[in-house]
Each structure stands twice: as structure tokens, then as C-alpha cells.
């Protein structure tokens, strides 16, 4: 069987910065077949040599250009011309071919390309060896996501559709299930009996940079909460799956998100200088910061606040999940005169990959103070070579037809429903200059030390 990886939008940032390095690494590790053909599809009039020159200039991660050059072809086409899709289908062949078609294009192109792929005969509905990957964001809101999905279902079977949320490909996101279910200590304390709060964080150090025009129409809630943070919440809040099969895990994740609701007490912010960024509307009300609290109405998590924090210009790039455990009555009684810090489990997703468990010990020496001690595990340090990038894992799963790390339609639909319940008019927009401003605001508004 021949294997084709066909990438629409091959002259874009995603292709140069993420996909080519990931493909190169998979070839090097011999995880892709030797006869892999890569078709770089785009609208520019250029030769393969020109294309590779540009790719080399734009790439920032390691790529073995010699190996890529052996397998790649450039295909120029007009995405609105069905004859071009027919030509592409002919080039690839109709039989005994595994086709992985990746749409690395802006969301507005999903519809014409999906139609062209189907009408041009590149993909037949129901053939699970013909797979199509759709990038985040999937829709602009619940209604548009539904429309896109209906359109996709008219051309393809759900089993052929791979919706990417690259966070799911990150090593420590995949590790959440192992930490939860392979450790009795955590499995047995994973409920409101022992957990006081969960804080989901995705902070960025940069502002909008060159994405201003896109970002200003979207904002932090749609850009980050609907996708990445909601996925993180689902993995923490889900009930035990009956197996580790893709659908059993996704069933439980959807069920967890269905039980989630934000309370209408949240903070929206805009970083100082956002309004003067090129591409941002003068009087824009787009939030570059969101802090909110949600509750999961299940027996397991009833009463446990899930805090969501995401934003730009927050001093550092950092994604992590903090699970704060309750102090027990017995401990408080036994150590009555002493301050006992809460145990915390911190799952570090980026830029570090690791886990920290904060526990309490006696201070060393003759004193007997209680001290916080940290068991800090660096997951990346143990990897031979570098840990695979999220896109590497996702491309490999695409090739193998494994769907666990791709979002099913009901996950996306439920996440859109939940963020659409956030009434932005009720949020009090504030201007921040630093993360400290955000911390002060959150702790003051919520009357406790959350951050
Ligand atoms: N970049 C990332 O790291 C990243 C991360 C997560 C998700 N994503 C998602 O991935 C998708 C692509 O992102 P990107 O950063 O690669 O975007 P990009 O740099 O803007 O590239 C988009 C690609 O689409 C092509 N394109 C745009 N309009 C077209 C049209 N009318 N007809 C034909 N081709 C057209 C561009 O061709 P030209 O070069 O000819 O304009 C380019 O090849 C987006 O949905 C984005 O949200 C990207």
C-alpha cells in the first residue's frame, strides 16, 4: 500500500515550523514507511526547488532536508477548481493508497477544500484509509462549528475525520491518565473527599504578535478556553473509563464537560498596549485574559472549584494544572499549633514536562516545624534525546489510525456550548501590565489566595 501525506497550506507557518520537523523526525525514527510521499499543496507558482529553499529559510526546528527532498513534491492548485482536485486524485491514485490529508489552512478554507476533496474524488466517504485532518479552531462559535460539522459529515464518515487540538499531543497531557489511574494514591483521592480545588493555567509571555487581526475577532475564551483548557478540565474531571480505548475515554470526557458550568463571576482583561497593536480595532473589547471558575456537577467533584486562567503578556509561557488537596480534620487536630501547607500535585505541561508533588515533612534538625517538601520529577530529562513534539505524536497516530488524541465532534460541540454560556457582558474588563496585577485582581475579587 502506498502512503501519501497531502498537506494543504504548505506555504504556511504551521507547515514550516511544526509539520516538517515532525515528519522529518518520524522518518528518522523509521516510524513512517520508507515509501512515504509528501505532497506540499499550495497556490503559489513555484518549483519544488524554490519551495524547499523557502521552507529551509522559514523552518526553526531541525529538519533532515536530504530525507525530506527524497519524498516531497510540490503541487500548485486553485482550491476552488474541482479539476485541480481531480488531477491531484489521479496523481495520488485511487486504490491501495493510505491518504492522510492535512488542512493546514485558515478556518474559512475548510469548507471549499473539504468539498473539493470529495467532489474531485480524492476521498470516498467511508474509506478509513482516507483520513482528513482539521486544525483548531473548529468553528467560531457553536453555530458555525455545527454547520462545518454537518458539511463534513455529508462528505466523510466520522471515522475519517481527525480534529486536532495539539494540546492533546503534548506528553504531559497524555500522562494525566497514567498519573490518575496507575497510581493508587491518586486514584483513591481523586474526588471532592480529598481535592479542594483544581487550577488550569495556560499563560503566555508574548502579546498578539502577528496574529492580531485573527486574535481580535476571537479572544482568549474562544482561542484557549474552548479548546485547550476544556480538554485539560475533562481529563481531570472524567470518571474512570471502562478501558483505554479511544471511544471509552472520549465518552467519559464528554460526560465530564456536560456536567461543567461556569459561574458568572469571572475576570476579563486586556494587557496594556493591546489596543495599539497593528490589526486590533481601536475600541476593541476583545479579552486577552480570562479568569473564571467552573463547577463539575458530578458526585465526584461536586463543590470543587475548577479555576481557569489563560492570557497573553503574563510574564512567562507556562501551562500547568494544580491540584490542591484538602487538609484533613485529623491533621489539623494533631498538629494544632502548626501551619500545615496543603498537598499539591502540579502537572507541568509546558515549557517543562514534569510532575511536582508538594508534601509536608518535619524540618531537619532539632526543631520540629512542618515544612513543605517538593518531589519534583522532570519527565523530559528522562527522555532519550528530546521528547517528541505534540505534532509528531499526532501525525504518528494519524498514520496508525488511532483517534484517542483527536477530538470527537461531541467533545467540541459540548465545549462550545459551555463557553457560550459565559456572558461576557457580566465580566468586568480590567487593564493589566503584569502578572502581578492579575494575581492581585483575582485574589481580591475571589477573596482568597488562588494564584
Ligand atoms: N502556526 C501554528 O503554529 C499553528 C498552531 C496551531 C494551530 N494552527 C492552525 O493551523 C492553520 C494554519 O495556520 P498557519 O499558522 O500555518 O497559517 P498561515 O501561516 O496563515 O498559512 C496558511 C496557509 O493557507 C494558505 N492560504 C491562505 N489563504 C488561501 C487561499 N485563499 N487559497 C489558498 N491557500 C490559502 C496560505 O497560502 P499563501 O502562503 O499562499 O498565503 C498558507 O499556505 C490555522 O487554522 C491555525 O489556526 C497553527
Structural descriptors:
451 residues, alpha/beta, Rossmann fold, Dihydrodipicolinate Reductase, domain 2, 2 domains, 10-stranded mixed beta sheet, 7-stranded mixed beta sheet, 24% strand, binds NADP nicotinamide-adenine-dinucleotide phosphate
Write up what this structure looks like.
The longest helix is centred in the middle third of the chain and has 26 residues, at 212-237. The strands form 2 sheets. Strands 7, 8, 9, 10, 11, 12, 13, 14, 15 and 17 form a 10-stranded mixed beta sheet that branches. Strands 3-2-1-4-5-6-16 form a 7-stranded mixed beta sheet. The protein has 451 residues and is of the alpha/beta class. It has 2 domains: 2-163, 3-Layer(aba) Sandwich (Rossmann fold); 168-445, 2-Layer Sandwich (Dihydrodipicolinate Reductase, domain 2), CATH 3.30.360.10. The chain is globular. The model has no long low-confidence stretch (mean pLDDT 94). The chain has 14 helices and 17 strands. A hairpin with a 7-residue loop joins strand 14 and strand 15 (370-378). Helix 5 packs parallel to helix 6 (142-155) and helix 6 (142-155) packs antiparallel against helix 13 (409-420). Residues 9-14, 17-18, 42-44, 79, 104-107, 109, 135-136, 166 line the site of NADP nicotinamide-adenine-dinucleotide phosphate.
Amino acid at each position: 500500500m502506498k502512503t501519501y501525506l497531502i498537506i494543504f497550506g504548505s506555504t504556511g507557518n504551521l507547515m514550516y515550523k511544526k509539520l516538517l520537523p515532525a515528519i522529518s523526525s518520524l522518518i528518522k525514527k523509521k516510524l513512517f514507511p520508507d515509501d512515504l510521499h509528501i505532497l506540499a499543496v499550495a497556490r503559489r507558482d513555484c518549483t519544488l526547488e524554490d519551495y524547499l529553499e523557502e521552507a529551509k529559510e522559514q523552518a526553526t526546528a531541525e529538519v533532515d532536508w536530504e530525507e525530506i527532498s527524497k519524498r516531497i513534491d510540490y503541487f500548485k492548485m486553485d482550491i476552488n477548481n474541482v479539476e485541480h482536485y481531480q488531477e491531484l486524485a489521479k496523481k495520488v491514485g485511487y486504490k491501495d493508497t493510505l491518504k492522510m490529508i492535512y488542512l493546514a489552512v485558515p478556518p474559512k478554507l475548510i469548507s471549499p477544500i473539504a468539498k473539493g476533496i470529495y467532489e474531485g474524488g480524492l476521498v470516498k466517504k467511508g474509506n478509513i484509509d482516507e483520513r482528513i485532518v482539521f486544525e483548531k479552531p473548529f468553528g467560531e462559535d457553536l453555530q458555525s462549528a455545527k454547520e462545518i460539522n454537518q458539511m463534513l459529515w455529508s462528505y466523510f464518515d466520522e471515522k475519517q475525520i481527525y480534529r486536532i487540538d495539539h494540546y492533546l499531543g503534548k506528553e504531559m497531557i497524555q500522562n494525566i491518565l497514567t498519573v490518575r489511574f496507575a497510581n493508587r494514591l491518586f486514584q483513591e483521592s481523586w474526588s471532592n473527599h480529598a481535592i479542594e480545588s483544581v487550577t488550569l493555567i495556560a499563560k503566555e509571555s508574548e502579546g498578539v504578535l502577528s496574529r492580531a487581526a485573527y486574535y481580535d475577532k476571537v479572544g482568549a475564551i474562544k482561542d484557549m478556553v474552548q479548546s485547550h483548557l476544556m480538554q485539560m478540565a475533562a481529563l481531570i474531571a472524567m470518571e474512570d473509563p471502562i478501558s483505554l480505548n479511544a471511544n471509552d475515554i472520549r465518552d467519559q470526557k464528554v460526560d465530564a464537560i456536560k456536567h461543567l458550568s461556569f459561574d458568572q463571576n469571572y475576570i476579563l482583561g486586556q494587557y496594556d498596549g493591546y489596543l495599539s497593536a497593528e490589526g486590533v480595532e481601536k475600541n476593541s473589547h476583545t479579552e486577552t485574559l480570562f479568569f473564571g471558575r467552573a463547577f463539575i456537577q458530578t458526585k465526584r467533584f461536586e463543590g470543587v472549584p475548577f479555576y481557569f486562567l489563560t492570557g497573553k503578556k503574563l510574564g512567562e509561557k507556562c501551562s500547568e494544572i494544580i491540584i490542591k488537596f484538602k487538609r484533613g480534620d485529623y491533621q489539623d487536630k494533631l498538629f494544632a499549633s502548626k501551619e500545615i501547607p496543603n498537598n499539591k500535585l502540579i502537572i507541568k505541561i509546558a515549557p517543562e514536562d514534569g510532575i511536582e508533588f508538594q508534601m509536608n515533612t518535619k524540618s531537619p534538625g532539632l526543631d520540629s516545624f512542618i515544612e513543605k517538601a517538593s518531589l519534583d520529577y522532570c519527565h523530559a530529562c528522562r527522555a532519550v534525546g528530546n521528547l517528541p513534539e505534540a505534532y509528531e505524536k499526532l501525525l504518528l497516530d494519524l498514520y496508525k489510525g488511532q483517534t484517542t488524541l483527536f477530538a470527537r465532534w461531541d467533545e467540541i460541540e459540548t465545549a462550545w456550548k459551555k463557553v457560550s454560556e459565559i456572558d461576557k457582558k457580566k465580566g468586568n474588563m480590567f487593564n493589566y501590565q503584569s502578572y502581578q496585577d492579575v494575581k492581585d485582581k483575582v485574589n481580591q475579587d475571589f477573596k482568597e489566595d488562588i494564584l
